[in-house]
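Dig into these lines:

——
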Amino acid sequence: MAQAIVDKIDRDPARAGLEKARATCRRWNRQSPQRAHAEWLEILERPWEEIREVMLDEGEEGQRLRQNDPFSGILTPQERWAIYRSINEA
């Protein structure tokens, strides 16, 4: 999923998905402040290249951060289902 999200944001020169993630994270933080939201707020202030690295980090830290990433809604339901199907076919 993270790779698909990164690819979609990479293809968009306006980086609309990135701004959507920032807005989502700010909303989550207002509604229910948590450590994970604060971490993501800090990460989302970085340049896209650094955010991209966090999203694609295959280590424990990357996996931990992705448990609460604010990138929900970036992929359409059809894009998500295509990924699920490709995983099931593999």
